[in-house]
Amino acid sequence: MTERVIHIATGLIRDSDGCVLLVRKRGTQAFMQPGGKIDAGETPVQALLRELEEELALRLRVGDVVDLGTFSAPAANEPGFEVQAALFAVTRAVEPKIQAEIEEMAWVDPAAPGDIVLAPLTRDYVLPLCAVLNAEGPMAETDCGDILTRLQNPS
User: What is its cofactor (predicted)?
Assistant: First the structure.
């Protein structure tokens, strides 16, 4: 049986107001974090840096991103598949510019994203994480795991 998992690397990019950068690829409806598939022989970080340069003209270095963990959700654009996403926070201020397959980008308030269509990973993990991070203030990346545990297992 063929594996129905797509391995991707995605970037969590926030501005100084705590809004999250989301993109919509050409020919699709759902907004999601920028990033993409991990090529053979690539690490997740290498894939993320490549994808951010291709999609948004962002030239980042390994030291500009922090690993937030790996998350699984239904794929937004490939029915019957699941994405397994390595999520990284971009820690440097950026000025993205749409290119490649990106049709549209938007800075979204994670607590009130409005009526845009969101990818399941974005809706279920990324925006809730950002809303908590924004509410609790600056935190070390090690605190993100605790926040995600609380989001996934509310008591």
Answer: Mg(2+)
Its pTM stands at 0.87
Confidence class for position 16, pLDDT limits 50, 70, 90: confident
Q: What count of residues does the chain have?
A: 155
Residue 138's alpha-carbon distances to 33, 41, 83, 108, in angstroms, are 21, 34, 28, 19
Domain CATH for 59: 3.90.79.10
- Dihedral angle, C-alpha 33, 35, 36, 42, nearest 10 °: -140
pLDDT in tens, 37-70: 999 999 999 999 999 999 999 999 999 998 888 9
**Contacts of 153 by beta carbon, 8 Å cutoff, 6+ apart:** none
For residue 41 the two structure tokens come to: 């022989």
Distance CA 11, CA 14 (A): 10
Rounded CA-CA distance 85/70 in Å is: 5
Closest CA to 106 of 3, 6, 31: 31
Structure token pair of residue 11: 């970037």
Beta strands 5-12 and 20-25 are unpaired
Q: Distance from first CA to last CA of the chain, Å, rounded?
A: 37
Its domain, for residue 41, covers 5-152
